[in-house]
Amino acid sequence: MKKRAKGEGSLYKTIQRQDRKQHRLAVECETCRNCKTRELCNNRKGTKKCEKCRKCTDCLNYCDRFYCNIYFKAQATVNGKQKTLATGKKQKEVNNKKTENLVKIDSGKYINKNNITLSQQLRNTQERKLTDEEIGENTFKRNIESIKSIEKKCPTLAFKKLQDITEDDILTVLRSHKNRSQSVIEKAYDIIHVALEMAVKDKLIEDDKNPISNIKRSSILSDKDKKIAIPFTVDETKNLIKYIDETNDELVDNKSKIDSTSMKNLIKLSFAFGTRCGELCAINMNKHIDFKRKKIIISRTLTRNKSGQIIIGKYTKTGKKAKMRGAQDIREVPFDLIYAKYEVEKILKDQIKIAKNIEGNKDNLLFCNKDGTYVDTKHITCIFKKICRQAGIKLDLKTGCHIHMTKHTVVTRLIESKMDIYAISKLVGTSRTVLEKTYAHILDDFVESEIEKSKQNREEQSLLYVGDDKQGNSNIIKFPRIKTS
């Protein structure tokens, strides 16, 4: 576009050259397609030369005089910057459009045209959330990986202009993840939803044109079977603990970053408290263990920063959401949640002696590597898988056993002991809704067993329903009969 001269009004006329490849006549006219010297331009019937083109003699090296068009442009100051509010070939049309946009600016409904792509908006939103401390570095890193997955599966849509994105485009992106788990699909939905809501707030797209507004979070279902929590049985737990007690010093090899006794105590305490591995490995032995009240305090976890380095996070995995709800991100788990408190207390004291003798343990962590560095939970899971194989525990799992199964085991034992689901959620740091979804099969099995127990109790106490015996006698209150005419 030609630059405006000083003193021109907000509505002005300019000449803009079009790219020859984009010109419709150059595509449709066979003569034009075969022309290399541009001497046959007059062959284009119905095309007018603009005034500038008729007088021009110096531009033949790049222009054939038919790609320059006269436009009217209207500008105004928006947020302290000069913006083009309307463009067109008719002055009246441009003036009217400018007036409409000025009204939208005054009412705060003006949408500024931009070239931001869907991918850029997704990434910008995550950067802002990280800056505003709405998410941690580890969550940021995981979300960026999810965005990369969207870019890989739907490159055309990912790099499409945000203002051109439609509802069908969003559904296409979500459907491209159907071969992944339901949680991956919902994560992609959440990332896109937040980014588009941010775009509406920043006036990048109109509220009534938000392409995700009519799409439900559960509208796309995964083709993959839902993962369920698989706990160890009581016998498997006993056999595993017996194995690590008998093996002890030979539990891990010399190349391992963590020593055998610490690994043994880590597994035992995981079964005792039902915490996540990162939470247990972030416990400060001087601040987070209350021997008087016989409780451990969970208020943080090991996580990773954007560079992938292990750090101690400010919150637990679900702590950020708890803080946003106004709740405390602190859990107190009693020593005797599953096992006898004196046994758990003894394990804690033994581990404290080991931790105090590690020179590099500057953060006074209950569990750390031999050199005092932070424990890598992935490394722990690898060791745990090997230990389970050696202990003869065979589960129908493609990935084998993992350390998080200790938490599944604790939750299962608490459900079996008839503890309220709300109390369980407070102890293990998982919302009630997630517990009910993740442990649905265990809860269903528990309900079925309770029904069977109820039937057995009725039989033992001769509590029969109406009509169960020949005489119709019953200890249960009879239902009143409805009189029929």
Structure report:
- The protein has 485 residues and is mainly alpha-helical.
- It has helices at residues 24-28, 30-34, 51-55, 91-107, 118-131, 137-153, 155-158, 167-175, 182-201, 234-247, 260-273, 277-280, 319-324, 341-356, 377-390, 405-416, 421-428, 432-438, 440-460; strands spanning 11-17, 68-78, 81-88, 289-290, 295-298, 302-304, 310-312, 331-334.
H/E topology pattern: EHHHEEHHHHHHHHHEEEEHEHHHHHH
Count of strand segments:
8
Contiguous helical run count: 19
Sum up the overall morphology in one term. elongated
Mean pLDDT: 79
Radius of gyration: 34 Å
Contiguous low-pLDDT stretches (5 residues minimum) are 1-9, 20-28, 464-470, 472-479
Structural class: mainly alpha
Distance between the termini: 89 Å
Biggest sheet layout: 3 strands, antiparallel
Widest β-sheet, arrangement of strands: 1-2-3
Helical percent range? Answer: 40-55%
Q: Which percent range describes the beta-strand content?
A: 5-15%
Walk me through the topology.
Elements: E1 11-17, H1 24-28, H2 30-34, H3 51-55, E2 68-78, E3 81-88, H4 91-107, H5 118-131, H6 137-153, H7 155-158, H8 167-175, H9 182-201, H10 234-247, H11 260-273, H12 277-280, E4 289-290, E5 295-298, E6 302-304, E7 310-312, H13 319-324, E8 331-334, H14 341-356, H15 377-390, H16 405-416, H17 421-428, H18 432-438, H19 440-460
Antiparallel strand pairs: 1-2, 2-3, 4-5, 5-8, 6-7
Helix pairs in contact: 5-6, 5-9, 6-9, 10-11, 11-14, 11-16
